[in-house]
Amino acid sequence: MFSDNHGDLGSPSSDARLPSLLALRCFEAAARHENFSQAAAELHLTHGAVSRAVRLVEDELQVALFDRRNRRVFLTDAGRTLARAVGSGLGLMRQAVGELRASARLGRRWVLSCEPTLLMRWLIPRWPDFQARHPDIDVHLVAGGGPFSFASGIDLAIRRDDFAWPDSHYAAPLFAERVGPVCHPGKLAAWFDQENAGLALKADAPRLHTRTRPGAWREWAAAAGQPAPDGSGQAFDHFYFSLQAALAGLGVAIGPWPLVRDDLESGLLAAPMGFVEDGSRYCLLAPQPVQPGSPQGDLLAWLQAMA
To answer: Which of 81, 205, 230, 297 would disulfide-bridge 292, Cβ 3.0–4.6 Å?
Structure first.
């Protein structure tokens, strides 16, 4: 099982023939620990498999590599010599494998699809931080919303769970959707009334709508326990335009927290009634589970930290 039979016995190269790599790995682990059970645990093998592998190396080299005394094993001089050589060789192989993996990681471009307004108002402003932290990960950002296919060249996607995606997709939660009315700070007195514990939107305050999320006002009202809006007001083709209209003082828009937080912090927008969760959330979607330490894992960890 563990022997490599290359070359003819008696040929000039027969003395240089190596035992199998698996047997040498078992020996090297056993030599480091001077314990077969610990070596077996490290290699996910049984104690018996490690013991047989070491015995096969000893038989092939015709030398004793361990002294076996009182249920313990101790390296012989020959065992120490071989352990140094095998350890050095495995170290060089591990280094080469690591360099190759790093090279492959550097050369891979990952395509991340993100909902357009989230991409524009939340992800791109923070993207320099990701690039500074992970200069070796090449990510191409593309705008896209709703259903998609990983077969179309997309590697990862950020989506709100307002549609059904296939069960085969891996979904890592990023943040819950929190929404609230936002407007130009100079319009607060004109469009909001002071009531008991807070502010209330006046009935005649101009409401801004978007065709990409037509139920935004209704969903906010249900989540916040507010009266249902009558649906009047100006409508825009995209969410981004309704938020720009709010910035310009044209009316009150429903603003998701991630999309307006920078404008709130800079004082360009006000959210007098705060934010409530509307029951949806954003997720990072991938075709397989994201492994920590992988490029996708580093991206996921950064996205969750930014949230």
So the answer is: 297
Q: Which of 269, 204, 275 is nearest to 233 (CA)?
A: 204
Q: Name which CATH class applies to 178-280.
A: alpha beta
pLDDT tens, N- to C-terminus, the chain (307 residues): 444 444 444 444 456 688 889 999 999 999 999 999 999 988 899 999 999 999 999 999 999 999 999 889 999 999 999 999 999 998 898 888 766 766 655 567 899 999 999 999 999 999 999 999 999 999 999 999 999 888 888 999 999 998 899 999 999 999 999 999 999 999 999 999 876 566 888 989 999 999 988 999 999 999 999 888 777 889 999 889 999 999 999 999 999 999 999 999 999 999 999 999 999 999 999 999 999 989 999 999 999 999 8
Cβ within 8 Å of residue 30, ≥6 positions away = 36, 39, 50, 54, 66, 73
- The domain spans of the chain are 14-105, 109-160+286-306, 178-280
Does domain 109-160+286-306 fall under CATH 3.40.190.10? My reply is: yes
Tokens of 69: 């005394």
